[in-house]
Write a structure and sequence with these properties.
Blueprint lengths: L2 H5 L2 E2 L23 E6 L11 E3 L5 E8 L4 E6 L4 E7 L2 E5 L6 E5 L4 E4 L5 E5 L5 E8 L8 E2 L1 H9 L2 E3 L5 E3 L18 H4 L11 H4 E2 L1 H7 L5 E5 L4 E2 L4 E7 L14 E7 L2 E5 L2 E5 L4 E4 L5 E5 L6 E7 L12
Parallel strand pairs: 2-3, 16-17
Antiparallel strand pairs: 1-22, 2-4, 4-11, 5-10, 5-12, 6-9, 6-11, 7-8, 7-10, 9-15, 13-14, 16-18, 18-24, 19-22, 19-24, 20-21, 20-23
Keywords: DNA-binding, Metal-binding
GO molecular function: DNA binding; metal ion binding
InterPro entries: AraC-bd, Cupin_2, GPI/OXD, RmlC-like_jellyroll, RmlC_Cupin_sf
């Protein structure tokens, strides 16, 4: 394996290529400054303009969303996991058909395993450009996005029409739906009953982990964040661990499944097949099964990293009403 082969599986934060027309609300005031990033896998973008950094999928997708202050992502739902951790800034997550069922504020490093089957949105409530990193369940990221009806109606008023084929058409650019493609139908009142209005007390304790709690939990071993025996108990088709300076040894090891490394704080030295490089906050590295590697913080000071490992569990629903 050459240095170039390894670098193809590392996406640097500074080299991320955004798409500003990824979703149906790209022209909607308040949401028209969003930047969507597809890092590993095809993601759920509805635009052919979306750049994909690594097309291979390890059983899940990695993406990111960047937004200036007061910019929001409109209410939508997924059929598989959507996990976010805050890389930069301060974010408000909200859910329910009109975003009024519940909300909480996420700080840098916090992670949210959003329950499937509910409408959710998020907004940058910080003072600077913010970035959240995303893990989406399944190789095809659950087949796309289901939008709240009012989102589709408002987007149409601003020139964007979503076809039932999942492709966006911009009437401001003279685009029209193909003759054999109908507009994406709005969910009926009966269908909307399948999307629960979940109170905040049923979401935050079960699906949110705070950064400084994870720092305290990660002692001599990584903290288990998402998994069957983790802090946030779930089986979304992947597991998430939280690594710190004291919870990992600088020794060669391998995993049976694909692993993705996503630094949160500090600089991490990755050794792989005789090659050594440094991973920085916002970088993403894909490690293949049975690939021997070593990982350790490369400088003094605070160091933290999220590690995502594929599992054999199907990428199905994560929400349970109990």
């Amino acid at each position: 394996m050459t240095r170039a082969d390894i670098e193809k599986r590392i996406v640097r934060y500074g080299e991320l290529k955004p798409c500003k027309t990824a979703f149906i609300d790209a022209h909607t005031p308040g949401s028209d400054q969003k930047e969507n990033f597809t890092i590993i896998g095809g993601g759920v973008s509805e635009s052919p303009d979306q750049h994909v950094h690594i097309r291979d999928t390890p059983g899940f997708n990695i993406g990111a969303a960047g937004q200036p202050p007061k910019c929001r992502n409109s209410l939508h739902s997924h059929t598989t996991a959507e996990v976010f951790f805050v890389l930069k800034g301060r974010w408000r997550f909200f859910w329910g058909l009109h975003g009024t069922a519940g909300e909480f504020i996420a700080e840098e490093g916090d992670i949210f395993n959003i329950p499937t089957g509910i409408f959710r949105g998020f907004e940058n409530v910080g003072t600077d450009y913010g970035m959240i990193m995303a893990i989406l369940g399944g190789d095809d990221a659950g087949g796309g996005v289901t939008w709240a009806p009012h989102v589709i109606e408002e987007a149409s008023a601003h020139g964007l029409v979503l076809g039932e084929n999942g492709v966006l058409y911009d009437t401001k650019k003279g685009q029209e739906l193909p003759h054999n493609v109908s507009p994406m139908p709005l969910l009926s009142a009966e269908q909307l009953k399948e999307f629960p209005e979940v109170p905040v007390e049923n979401v935050v304790p079960r699906y949110v982990a705070r950064y400084w709690d994870l720092m305290a939990l990660a002692g001599k071993k990584p903290a288990k964040v998402i998994g069957t025996d983790a802090l946030l108990k779930d089986k979304p088709g992947f597991e998430v661990d939280f690594l710190t300076r004291g919870s990992i040894a600088d020794e060669m090891h391998s995993h049976d499944k694909h692993v993705v490394l996503m630094p949160m704080r500090g600089h991490w030295t990755l050794r792989l097949d005789g090659y050594e490089t440094v991973l920085n906050p916002g970088d993403t590295a894909l490690i293949n099964p049975q690939e021997a590697h070593a990982l350790a913080p490369s400088m003094t000071g605070e160091a933290s990293l999220y590690r995502v490992t594929a599992t054999d569990d199907p990428a199905g629903a994560t929400w349970t009403a109990n």
